[in-house]
From TrEMBL:
SMART domains: HTH_ARAC. The lineage of its organism: Bacteria, Bacillati, Bacillota, Bacilli, Bacillales. This is Helix-turn-helix domain-containing protein. Residues 668-767 form the HTH araC/xylS-type domain. The keyword ATP-binding does not apply. GO terms for molecular function: DNA-binding transcription factor activity; sequence-specific DNA binding. The keyword Ligase does not apply. SUPFAM superfamilies: Homeodomain-like. Keywords: DNA-binding, Membrane, Transcription, Transcription regulation, Transmembrane, Transmembrane helix. InterPro entries: CdaR_GGDEF, Homeodomain-like_sf, HTH_AraC, HTH_AraC-typ_CS, Tscrpt_reg_AraC-type_HTH. The chain crosses the membrane at residues 12-30, 296-318.
């Protein structure tokens, strides 16, 4: 018992020391914290308000993300760009859009109330209803301070880009509330006076206030949010009149983050992204109560923690010393000896555990000796295809220590040792031993070539070998590299040991799950080599020409051919046709009937594509159709390929021509706009893109492709040409001419003129004197 008590005491003393050190540090921290409690409370309040700000901005970002998802919705894009007939409407399309967007209102409380206005149909879509006249929606839900006409004009009749309408009273189904409104026109790049569609998200003030309730719930204070113009977005615990009074008080410094106003600590944060102003008020009394609470809580917690720590330390000392005592008892029983008197218990355990480790190492060595048998069994199961999942292969490969991973590529081969055919019925121990030695030499020689080859026996005179890919990350093995390894190997086996070796290989595999397929192909190839060709050397499965009664033209390849032609990608379309013809002529032997059907399928694909609107309105439509119909199997493969390629060139040319015509018209419109507005100093790429109704980057790239000149250089050239004309007239000063051609600064004008024309404006004018 004395030894047991010593271990227990050591543990207990350690826990007591651990308790004393943080207790001393905690006392010092307590003395310091009393002096800074008020500042910490202020920082916590600021943090709480910042978190509320981040939550609100994140939720508003989700609202913006919702409108962007609507902008990317293909069904909505088609619907809002349809031309509304006089007596019909796309009721199914409207119903489908309602069904698709309804899920947003079920997962986000900021999106419970929103509507989408489709201008072409004059319809308002909500999560649960469709109003085929805006007046009907206005009867159920409207701003109480806004008439129907104002609503139509200001919200539905204008183009909006991430606009937020401040807090306004709102009535919905007879219920009065206040909402802010997030407005976005669709598509996102709408610049005109009226957009095809408008999305309005109505966010209840109570929902916003719930995100800002943390400060009020914690301190009993108030919160207020306003936009950059000072208009209210949310109020909680304070009235609008009180806010106006405080804002008008000269004692409030609007630049300060925290300050005392009367009996409240006022915290102010301005959002860098939205410009919104967040304010929170915390009663001074609440801040001081926190300081006293910390004082009493600190003493109570420290005393309770010390008491609980002593109890827990006592318990842990008993619990942690008990296993060591039991372990020592087991060691004494197993080894039949006690710990020496005065010796540390851990030293006693260390000596005996060392003996156990030594015994374990001997056992591990025996297991390593058996590892080749485990590896051989794994390879036999792998080639037989007995594994069902990749995870199962990975686990078995790791256990067998093969180094095979799921991403390894390679090929399976069967190597045949010749010279023993016909001896099966009269095998003797000597012949079997000789074959066993030959197999051993064969496998050892393969390992000498490269350590990555895995081998296993197949009968008495054959060896299965798995050749991994030669480079990391490669899933396709190079056939020439395998040939380069095996041909010198076979010559060496014959010259050194008089052993003749031939081999058969399947197709390469990309992962462990395909090893069995490659193995079966190797077996088939071996039979072909042994009994049909009497081949010497090495034969690959790909060398056996396969006959087929069906042609190769899968649906995904047809869809790829259609999409590439529609995109005008001529070379890629030709490559697809070449691949189809190669698969069906070089890798297969098709009957004439199957070949006719294949050509018919290819012609059908081109005819089906030609009937689409993009081609039907082109001048070469009839010619291309006649050329497709003229393709027959009676010609040679080269004639068929040439004919198909010619048709592809023609069809892609139609697409390219349409694109070029549209691009030229767009660029000419840009040039005309610049010629009319070059004198505007605010004429920027954004303004030009707005007029062309295209994105800025698209306009810039298109202008460069069509004209070979940057858009900014063209604008500058137009201005300089006009400036040169005005300088020749001599009726205006240089500063006046700078304003006339769109420059706010005469210095910028002079520098640009000299860069383009090569001389200063004054020198250019003097040259005409």
């Amino acid at each position: 018992m004395s030894r047991h008590s010593r271990i227990f005491r050591n543990f207990l003393i350690s826990y007591i020391v651990i308790l004393i050190i943080p207790s001393l540090a905690g006392y010092m921290s307590y003395r310091t914290s009393i002096n800074v409690t008020q500042s910490i409370s202020i920082e916590n309040s600021v943090t709480q308000l910042q978190k509320s700000q981040q939550m609100l901005e994140r939720r508003m970002a989700e609202v913006e993300g919702f409108t962007r998802q609507l902008a990317l919705n293909q069904d909505l894009y088609v619907l809002m760009n349809e031309k509304q007939g006089s007596d019909d409407g796309n009721v199914y399309g409207i119903w489908k859009i309602m069904k698709e967007v309804m899920v947003f209102s079920q997962t986000n409380d900021f999106l419970k109330n929103y509507y989408i206005y489709l201008r072409n149909y004059n319809v308002v879509l909500t999560p649960g209803s469709a109003y085929f006249r805006p007046e009907h929606y206005y009867e159920n839900a409207h701003y109480t301070d806004m008439t129907l006409q104002q609503w139509k004009t200001d919200l539905l009749g204008k183009t909006h880009s991430r606009e937020v309408l401040p807090l306004k009273p709102f009535a919905m189904n007879g219920t009065q509330t206040s909402v802010i409104s997030y407005m976005q026109s669709l598509p996102l790049d709408s610049f005109g006076a009226q957009a095809p569609a408008t999305v309005v998200v109505l966010i209840d003030q109570k929902t916003i206030a719930s995100l800002l309730a943390g400060v009020k719930d914690r301190y009993g204070g108030w919160t207020y949010v306003s936009d950059a113009q000072g208009q209210a977005v949310s109020m909680l615990g304070i009235g609008e009149e009180e806010i106006k009074t405080m804002n008008g008080d000269g004692g409030i410094d609007k630049a300060k983050q925290s300050q005392f106003y009367h009996d409240d600590l006022v915290i102010t944060i301005r959002s860098a992204s939205t410009g919104w102003i967040y304010r929170a008020g915390i009663p001074r009394k609440a801040l001081m109560e926190n300081a006293n609470d910390i004082k009493y809580i600190s003493w109570s917690v420290t005393g309770g923690a010390l008491l609980i720590g002593l109890i827990v330390g006592w318990f842990l000392s008993l619990r942690n010393s008990a296993p060591i005592n039991r372990l020592m008892g087991i060691v004494r029983e197993q080894f039949g000896k006690d710990a020496p008197i005065g010796r540390n218990a851990y030293d006693f355990l260390q000596g005996n555990i060392s003996t156990i480790i030594t015994s374990n190492q001997a056992l591990e060595q025996e297991l390593n000796r058996q590892l080749p048998l485990i590896r051989d069994a794994f390879l036999k199961r792998l080639t037989a295809g007995e594994f069902q999942t990749r995870e199962e292969i990975q686990a078995a490969a790791a256990q067998a220590g093969t180094g095979l991973t799921l991403n390894d590529g390679g090929v399976v081969g069967i190597l045949h040792i010749h010279g023993y055919t016909g001896l099966d019925a009269a095998e003797t121990v000597e012949i079997l031993n000789e074959l066993s030695a030959a197999r051993l030499l064969l496998k050892q020689s393969l390992r000498d070539i490269t350590g990555g080859i895995l081998t296993t026996d197949l009968g008495s005179d054959r060896v299965v070998a798995i050749f991994p890919s030669c480079e990391d990350g490669e899933t396709d093995i190079d056939r020439s590299e395998v040939q380069a390894l095996l041909e010198p190997f076979a010559a060496s086996m014959f010259s050194d040991y008089k052993i003749t070796v031939t081999g058969a290989f399947g197709d390469p595999f990309a992962s462990g799950m395909e090893v069995s397929r490659s193995y079966e192909q190797a077996k088939e190839t071996m039979g072909y080599a042994d009994y049909i060709m009497q081949r010497k050397g090495f034969l690959w499965y790909a060398d056996i020409r396969q006959e087929s009664t069906t042609y190769y033209y899968p649906l995904d390849m047809e869809l790829r051919l259609i999409s590439t032609i529609r995109a005008g990608e001529e070379e890629e379309a030709k490559r697809i046709v070449q691949s189809v013809l190669q698969q069906n002529t070089e890798d297969r032997e098709l009957s004439p009937e199957m070949a006719n059907q294949l050509i018919g399928e290819l012609k059908g694909t081109l005819l089906k594509l030609l009937d689409q609107k993009a081609f039907a309105e082109s001048e070469g439509f009839e010619d291309a159709k006649d050329r497709i119909m003229d393709i027959q199997l009676t010609g040679s493969l080269d004639l068929i390929r040439t004919g198909l390629n010619g048709i592809i060139e023609s069809m892609c040319g139609m697409i390219t021509s349409k694109k070029n015509d549209l691009h030229i018209r767009t660029v000419e419109g840009i040039k005309q706009f610049i010629a009319e507005r070059y004198s505007d100093a605010e004429l920027t790429l954004y303004r030009i893109a707005e007029q062309a109704e295209r994105p800025e980057k698209y306009i810039s790239q298109l202008f460069k492709e069509v004209t070979g000149t940057n858009l900014s250089d063209h604008l500058e050239k137009v201005r300089m040409d006009r400036a040169a004309e005005l300088l020749q007239e001599k009726s205006l000063t240089v500063d006046e001419i700078a304003v006339q051609v769109g420059y706010n600064s005469s210095h910028s004008f002079r520098r640009a003129f000299k860069r383009v024309m090569g001389v200063a404006p004054s020198a250019y004018r003097q040259s005409f004197d």
